[in-house]
Amino acid sequence: MPHIDFWHDPASTYSWLAAMRIEDAAARCGVSVRWQPFLLGPAFARLGWATSPFNLQPEKGRYMWRDLERQAAALGAVLVRPNPFPQNGLLAARVALIGHDAGWGPAFTRTVYAAEFSEGRDISGREAVAALLERVDVAPDTVLDRATSTENKLRLKEQSDAAQRLGIFGAPTFVTADGEMFWGNDRLAEALYWARHGSLAGYAV
Amino acid sequence: MPHIDFWHDPASTYSWLAAMRIEDAAARCGVSVRWQPFLLGPAFARLGWATSPFNLQPEKGRYMWRDLERQAAALGAVLVRPNPFPQNGLLAARVALIGHDAGWGPAFTRTVYAAEFSEGRDISGREAVAALLERVDVAPDTVLDRATSTENKLRLKEQSDAAQRLGIFGAPTFVTADGEMFWGNDRLAEALYWARHGSLAGYAV
Fold first, then answer.
1. Which residues of chain A lie closer than 8 angstroms to B62, CB-CB?
2. Could you tell me where the beta strands, DSSP code E, fall in A97-197?
């Protein structure tokens, strides 16, 4: 079965939208999903940005929140903005890596996004992440210890380095096995089509 | 008949894609299109940018050209990159304003985009714009004189000021009569749906 890599940052608004629908959309196309958590912060820092472009560009930010609300509503979801935005997703990303080995990674990641963007909750601290693990029936303590081990910290750093090597500059980004890259929740259908057919020939924009 | 305002910059790559399909797409939805040329340069300058973000962010730029090529191909169009990018669209935008009064504005604008992005031609100078006017059977000299009159220069400036007041930060941007804003060629279908129904209720993302 062909696959796509789903590069997503726990703090990324449009990654939330993609995470809500990617498994069903991929299944309809006969494509499997490899969840690839990473952090966008280093990519922003390389551009000299200390925060999200949605904060640095007020007009773009204002538009993004309105667009996100509309898009979420069309998916049946409610938007409640977290404060501050962006949330610090470092621990959530580290935990997600453990979860992807164990099989509960996608469910945990969707729970993180739902808490963050549909309830406006803080997802950054150890207590917050522990509560989210409990929501998906995972005992938090061992997982949190493993997540913050030196080995796992390096593993997340390697994820962000790999994203940089791929030329990823935003999230979500979908990458097919043959290296084709699609940026943005809007491009999910194209990415799945490419994963299945190796081109967009026959795809109607 | 409901309408949408189609805010586009002559140098904008994704405005090219939207210009290729907006009239047919709008007609299918029973919506009319008001073509609103403007320049993005002042919006970029307010952010301290001296050129397009696709030049300032090399990874994003590399991705954009690949994505544009794919999207254009899916619309049956060929991409040939103009050099330099972005092109200076000042004169083309001034001429387009004259054309929108006279009825040949949309055809001229599509011709500008096709020359720029499907042939990679320079669209900036008086000779280049004159040749594009001739392609749509408009005698260039009088039009070019009117386009560069003080009155028409101020009119284009007022277009860019109006875009700023609307909070427009990129192109294409679609704005409905009730003030709802949709940014990007990807949002054309949503914008037309909103123009017709006043919300996205019932719209499937």
1. 167
2. 173-176, 181-183
- pTM score, two decimals? 0.96
- With residue A93 as reference, give the H or E element that holds it: helix A90-102
Q: State both tokens at A122.
A: 């803080």
Find out whether the peptide bond into A172 is cis, omega within 30 degrees of 0.
Answer: yes
User: Cβ contacts of residue B203 below 8 Å, gap of 6+?
Assistant: A74, B190, B193, B197
Collapsing DSSP states into helix, strand and coil, what is residue A4? strand
Question: Rounded distance, CA A2 to CA A174, Å?
Answer: 13
Chain A environment of B167 (Cβ under 8 Å)? 59, 62-63
Round to whole Å and give the CA distance between A141 and A162. 29
For residue B145, the distance in angstroms to the closest alpha carbon of chain A comes to: 36
Of A127, A42, A124, A116, the C-alpha closest to A79 is A116
- Omega before A82 cis (within 30°)? no
CA-CA-CA-CA torsion sign (B51, B183, A39, A100): negative
How do residues A59-81 score in pLDDT, each as one tens digit?
Answer: 999 999 999 999 999 999 999 99
The ipTM assigned to this model is 0.94
Measured CA to CA, the distance from residue B200 to residue A66 in angstroms comes to 12
